[in-house]
Amino acid sequence: MLLQASTSQLVLVDYQQKLMPAIAGHAEVAANALRLAQAAQLLQVPVWGTEQNPSRLGPNLPELRALCQRTLAKMHFSAVAEGLGEWLQPPAKPAAGNARSLPKHLQKPAEAERGSIVIAGCEAHVCLLQTALELLEDEMEVWVVTDACGSRTERNRDAAFDRLAGAGAELVTTEMVLFEWLETAEHPEFKAVHALIK
């Protein structure tokens, strides 16, 4: 099972200016999140952001916020509880004509859905965990980018990864995501994406 750029969306959870200095390994975590967002832009993968209680914790890092299509301000720890799920699901299209008039094999195929949710953020054991678990409950494929996630302690971060893996999330790294999105060294954006990780 490999990721595909055409069916992916990227969610960046709470990389907030006042929170990041307290995150273990925060510089590497933020750098990997930026690589993911930049590659997503190059490969036309939608990027969404969330901010936990931004009036207290401030906005997301400006370089990440600038790459998000939209950013959801929230008070619940799970972004799904505040509407992220609606952003990730394509709007239902009304059926045109009598849907029973054609056999299924003659009907126009539906647009490809972007049901692979690549997610990274802070804190891994709180907002990221609760958001990812609710996305799994909503029957979405969830891919957690471990080297772009952080908590104040490594123990909390690792406990989140254990729980997410047990719940059915795929644990991946930034480079796994980028190379799976590219698929081939002949991809027109290969050099630009490869430059992000050199």
Sequence-ordered SSE layout with sheet pairings:
Blueprint: E1 8-13, H1 26-42, E2 47-52, H2 54-57, H3 62-65, E3 70-74, H4 84-88, E4 116-121, H5 124-137, E5 141-145, H6 154-167, E6 170-172, H7 174-182, H8 190-197
Parallel strand pairs: 1-2, 1-4, 2-3, 4-5, 5-6
Poorly predicted runs are none
Distance, first to last CA:
26 Å
Which class best fits the helix and strand makeup? alpha/beta
- The neighbouring-strand order within the major sheet is 3-2-1-4-5-6
Number of helices, where a helix is a run of at least 4 consecutive DSSP H or I residues: 8
- Rounded average pLDDT: 92
Helix and strand element order: EHEHHEHEHEHEHH
Q: How many runs of DSSP E, i.e. beta strands?
A: 6
Mind explaining what this structure looks like?
- There is one protein chain.
- This protein is an alpha/beta fold and 198 residues long.
- 38% of the residues lie in helices and 16% in strands.
- The chain is built from eight helices and six strands, in the order E-H-E-H-H-E-H-E-H-E-H-E-H-H.
- The chain has helices at residues 26-42, 54-57, 62-65, 84-88, 124-137, 154-167, 174-182, 190-197, and strands at residues 8-13, 47-52, 70-74, 116-121, 141-145, 170-172.
- Strand 1, helix 1 (26-42) and strand 2 form a beta-alpha-beta unit.
- Helix 1 runs antiparallel to helix 8 and helix 5 (124-137) packs parallel to helix 6 (154-167).
Relevant terms:
alpha/beta, 198 residues, single chain, 8 helices, six-stranded parallel β-sheet
Describe the structure concisely:
By secondary structure, this protein is α/β, with parallel strands linked by helices. The chain is built from 8 helices and 6 strands; from the N terminus they run E-H-E-H-H-E-H-E-H-E-H-E-H-H. Strand 1, helix 1 and strand 2 form a beta-alpha-beta unit.
